[in-house]
Amino acid sequence: MVLILGGVGSGKRDYARSLGYTDDEMSRDVFSDAPVLIELEETVRRAPQKAEALLEPLCTKELVLCAEVGSGVIPLSAEDRRFREATGRLCVQLAKQAQSVVRIVSGIPTVIKGEMPCERC
Amino acid sequence: MMILLTGGSACGKSSYAEDICLQGPAPRFYLAAMQPYGEDGQRKVQRHRALRAGKGFETIERYTDYASLKLPARGTALLECICNLTANEMFDENGNQSDPCERVLSGVENLAQQCDLLIVITNDVGSGGDIYEDGTNDYIRAVGAINSVLASRADTVIEMVAGIPILVKGELPLCN
Fold this sequence. Notes:
heterodimer; A: alpha/beta; Rossmann fold; 6-stranded mixed beta sheet; 4 helices; 32% helix; 21% strand; B: alpha/beta; 7-stranded mixed beta sheet; 7 strands
């Protein structure tokens, strides 16, 4: 599993496409058969208390795309804070399990763990 | 030696900072600037205490005025965090606002003079992108300005992403 992080709109999906994955292979549903999981942060937002249980199914994916949501002013609402923290903690766990972690900044990928993933054969 | 550690919520800053502290000389002080508001805040404090348990830290809770703090001995200190300290120095209990930069920076400098290794935790509060009221915008600019001065003062600056330390300046400390 390769974890791809970056801000909203930073180019994570384009990067997945550049590795040879098509849009049909991308799903927002953790439990689908699609090899690429996108918008993980939105799944966490809906049920932050269940984030930990996502770790195992996520580790079976080829790519997991998640927005970095922990920066900016700490939100006033406890719910928003829980969402940010649950997303952050889940990403720490995913990064530990991931073969590679790639961070996208302005469309530019930087490998922060492991090797740069190669294109799909 | 001063290390500035930045990163988003729950990115693994605290546990990494504590690991770095274990490389520094004893005694080790944990300087807590967060005022634990409500149940949520209490839970966060409990979680951080559990993380530090057995790591030999003496906790000093202090919300403002680090400039006059005298550490009991020379060793290693971990200050958590600039975002809380800046808010505490900027807004009083009546909501009055004043410029916190000088108080925060002289506080950190005072700590740096009194320890062999100082680790300062902060966050990039300017990367949220929401629209805020004036006081909050002033706060974002103040934290940004303070972070810039601290990064220039620090020997090492590290950004944490999903538990992975990314070197921004200087050299990564050796730890697991």
